[in-house]
Every structure is written in structure tokens, then in C-alpha cells.
Amino acid sequence: MADSPLLNPRTYDPTQLDDESRRLLRATVDWFESRGKRELVDSYNHQRWYADFLDFAAKERLFATFLTPAADGAGDPAKRWDTARNAALSEILGFYGLGYWYTWQVTVLGLGPVWQSDNAAARARAAALLDEGHVMAFGLSERPHGADIYSTDMLLTPDDEGGFRATGGKYYIGNGNVAGLVSVFGRRADVEGPDGYVFFAADSRHPAYRLVRNVVNAQMYVSEFRLADYPVRAQDVLHTGRAAFDAALNTVNVGKFNLCTASIGICEHAMYEAVTHAHNRVLYGRRVTDFPHVRRELTDAYARLVAMKLFSDRAVDYFRSAGPDDRRYLLFNPMTKMKVTTEGEKVVDLLWDVIAAKGFEADTYFDKAARDIRGLPKLEGTVHVNLALIVKFMANYLFHPVEHPPVPTRQDPADDEFLFRQGPARGLGAIRFHDWRAAYDAHAQVPNVARFREQADGLTALLVAHPPTEEQQRDLDFLLALGQLFALVVYGQLILEQAELTGLDGDLLDEIFDVLVRDFSAHATELHGKAATTDAQAAWALAHVRRPTVDPERTARVWSQVEALSGTYQMNG
Fold first, then answer.
1. pLDDT of 376-414, one tens digit each?
2. GO molecular function, one example (predicted)?
3. Does 121 fall in a domain?
4. Structural domain contains residue 164
């Protein structure tokens, strides 16, 4: 039987990475395991701030090593911004709890505007703070506007000494209670329009920084803070004008990729717990996992989870290989934020249907997973925002392929410095992709890949024969339904590429596409029912509902992989 691709702390050893990265990742796993499940669960239930984790990270210089670009690392060979190992750490932290991931995630975001800045003093200060064990924060959203960066009420007034005085509030700012550096977005009171934008570095310990409250009922601290006549010196200014706007969006491109790996980690831990519980429980004289519907739900959950990992791992390669002439990552990023995280919700729902009341128990990890998995698709730009962004790439992706050099697996210890010089956050319509059909052609012998390919080809035929009218293009509800179909084609492409690179078990790949065929059919049915859908489009939708190719022996072999998870991992008490 094929080895499970899921993270297992019992056997975790990221041999694909360099020695220091491997040591730090393993040390992080060992810290959580030695701390134990009871402490993990109790600290969550009692909403205790995770100072012990931050002490561990500071002692190991974990964030300093992983989040300092080589150019700012003072010659330390271990310091670099390496998306492959960052993704690995993000998955581990999600595996043990959203709060641990969240303090890392908002540190990533807080550093984004700094590492994109030409301000040498601010960069040196950030590097020093990381060495001292501090975390960072990203002061973008505001209560009246959310993350609408066109509308900010953080006002900066010139102080006649080359700096400003900042006054205003920020809302939903992680780490805002302790951050050594908060990257704050605002606008000059004396300059109208985009030229007035400013990104500056603030310190949560300054007397003009007032922490108002934690706005969520959780272990993590998601702050509301206010600045009152806060002195912004020239050396605190990170970006001005349009560059400040671009820094905000480009930070999101870099940092919010981590949503996918958090979702994966949460699902992995929940899956071990759910399968072990179900497989060792007897009801009505039968093992729970002997019921056909239970096997189907657990197999679907496993297939979806492995697909999440395949897509996300392959997306890392596109991030790391990006450059001014290859910005395909700008499609794959909202895919990880939207598609992978909503798949995470489906995985947990399937597991929960199996374990039922057990999923509410306070001493389980699952109880936390079921709550926290909901946040990932909703916190960092809603599903709808990300799907609307994905749709912008549809025409070029489907119809206008160009040649690109092959993108290899990228696990080498390189500094991903392009991510901090992405340039203006525009020009999405100019981004071109390699031919998506190639990955499908390479796996045409897999029955459900072939069936899904029929549906994908059908989508291109729909867009040629019955494209959205001008009115439909203004109807976001209609476009989002169409976007879900397109997103599945992109999702399948990277899954196939990664399956090829990793030699994924053929039965498991077929089972994954069994799920995708059903998902395409479900979204086609949804498109059929939309008020804005024309009769011709509705007829197309019904004509492209497909049954996956059924193979009981294949499904039984994949089930054996799921069954083998029982007892494979249980967190130390």
C-alpha cells in the first residue's frame, strides 16, 4: 500500500530541506508534542495567550530565521524568505491550532511592506526585532471599511519636521497587543487621491498607541487599536503614494498564500482523530467504518485533503519561480485562498458527519478544528472576492496559452526575493499561462481524469458558443457560479502536475477526480438554476452533468489507505 501523504508528527522528517530548516521544523513539532494534548486543548478552551509558544519561537529564533530575507540577514546562511519551508511551518502550526498559525501569519503580513521598502533603517529595525523574538502586525483594515484600502480614515498630518502625526483606528489586527512593529496603512490629510497614501511602521509599546480590545472571543488576539497624534518620523515611513497601495496588495499576494497550508494542517490532525475514533467504535454490532456511507464519506474526505496538498505544494513552485515575465502565481494565490480553504471546510464536514457528537467534545482537537476551519475562507478576503479575482484570468488561461519554461519542484534553499519586488499591482489581463490541456493529456488514461476533461472542454465550448452577455458580466452572482466551474479546471491542472512529479498512487488520483467530476456536475446544476442563465446556457449545464467512472475495487484500495490511518497518530497526552 502507498504511504500516506499526510503529515504525521511521529515520522515527520523534511529531508527535502536543508539541515537547519529541517532541525527547526522538527524542533517545532517536538515542542508541541512534549507540551502535550491536554495543555493544547486546555489553553484553547480557556483562551490563554500563547506566550509559551512565542517564547519557544524566540529562543529558537524561528521567525527570525524563516522570515528575514537573505539581504537583511547579516550574512546568516540560514536566513532567507523561502516559500517552501514557510509553507511547511505553516502546515505544522495549523496542525496544532489556528492560533499558533495566526501569530505567524500576521507576522508575515506585517513584514511585507517592510521588506518591499527601500527604507534601510526600517528594514534593519525589523531584522533586529525578529532577532529579539518579536512578532509583527499588519495594520490595514478598519471597522467601517474592512480591508477596502481605497477608504482609510487613518490620517497623517505633516509635522513640519519631515514626518507626520497619525490619528485614527485600525480593526481586526492580529498581534496588535504585542507587535514590535506594526505596518500601518493611512493617507495624508493634505493630499487627495492615491498620491496621499502612506505605509508607516508603528510600535505597539508607544504611549500614543492605544490598545482598545480583543475583538474576537478566542485564544488569539485580534486587536482594535487607535493612534492618537502618533509621531511618524521620516525613518518610520515605508512607502508613499501609489507605492503604498501596491505594497498592500503585494503583501497580500505573499502572505495570504499561507491560508491553504493552515487549512491542510487543521484537516490532517482532525482526520487522524476522526478515523481513529470511527474505526474503533462499534454500533449495532458493527464497526462504524464497516457502514458503506461512512467509508464513502471518509474516502471522499481523504481524497479532498490529498488534493488540497497536491495543489498547494505545486503552487509553491510557481511562487518560487516567479519573475516579471511569469506572474502565473497571481492566479494560483487566490485559488489557494478560496478553493483550498473551502475544500478544508468540506473535509471537516465529512469527518463530522461520521463522528457526530464526538466532534463537540471539549477534550478533542476536532472540536477546535470544526470551529476554526470556518475562518480561513472568510477572514482574508471572502470567497466571493477571491473568486471574482480568479475570473479575471479565465479568458487568457483557457484560450490564449503561451510557451513557458517548465517549472521544476522548488525545495532548494533559495531566497524568494522577487516576492518583495513584484512591482505595480496591476496588469492582470496581460498574464499568460501555459496550455492547461497538457497536464490533462498526460493523464488521459486515468478514467475520471478523462471524464473531467470532457467537462472542462465543455466549459470552453460554452464560453465560445454562449459567452456571458454584458448584463451577465455585471451580475456577480452569475459570474461566481461560472467561476466555480473555471476554478475546478485550474485546480485539476496543478493536482495533475504534482501527481506526476511525486508519483502519486494512481488509484488515489482517480478517486480525487471522481470527486472533481461530481463537483463540476454540482456547480453546473447551480448555474442551470441561476435567474440570469439563458436557456442555451441552462441546456449546456444539464448536458455536462456527468457520473464519475465507478470502480469498486479502486475505491476499496483507496479505502484501505484511509483505514490504515487509524491509530497511526495520536497526540501525546
1. 988 756 778 888 889 999 999 999 999 999 999 999 999
2. acyl-CoA dehydrogenase activity
3. yes
4. yes
Whether residues 126 and 147 share a domain: the answer is no
In a domain, 168, yes or no: yes
Q: How far is residue 99's CA from residue 218's CA, in Å, rounded to a whole number?
A: 8
Tell me the per-residue pLDDT of 60-106, one tens digit each, with 9 for 90 and over: 999 999 999 999 999 999 999 999 999 999 999 999 999 999 999 99
Burial readout 485-511 (b: 16 or more C-beta within 10 A, e: otherwise): bbbbbbbbbbbbbbbeeeebbebbbbb
Verify that 468 and 547 share a domain, yes or no: yes
Q: Report d(CA 242, CA 196) in Å as an integer.
A: 8
What's the structural domain count of the chain? 3
Residue 1 has pLDDT above 50, yes or no: no
- Residue 526 to residue 483: CA distance in whole angstroms: 12
Query: Residues 86, 125: one domain?
Result: yes
Averaged pLDDT for residues 442-452: 98
Domain residue limits at 226 = 138-241
Q: How many CA atoms lie within 13 A of 157 on its CB side?
A: 8
Residue 543 is assigned to a structural domain of this protein: yes
Same-domain pairing of 168 and 212 = yes
Q: What is the CATH number of the domain that holds 195?
A: 2.40.110.10
DSSP-derived secondary structure letter, 142 = B
Q: Give 207-217 pLDDT, tens digit per residue.
A: 999 999 999 99
Residues 130 and 142 reside in one and the same domain? no
The beta strands (E) that lie in 399-534 are given as none
Q: Are residues 114 and 156 in the same domain?
A: no
Does the structure show a pLDDT above 90 at 427?
A: no
Question: CA-CA distance, 73 to 459, in Å (whole number)?
Answer: 48
Q: Which CATH number does the domain housing residue 104 bear?
A: 1.10.540
Q: What percent of the chain has pLDDT over 90?
A: 91
Is residue 227 helix, strand or coil?
Answer: strand
**Cell numbers representing residue 115 in the block:** 521588506
Torsion of CA 263, 265, 268, 272, to 10 degrees: -130
Helix H, strand E, coil C: the string for 406-428 is CCCCCCCCCCCHHHHCCCCCCCH
Please give the grid coordinates belonging to residue 523. 456547480
Measure Cα distances from 422 to 11, 22, 109, 443, 497 in Å: 37, 29, 15, 34, 25
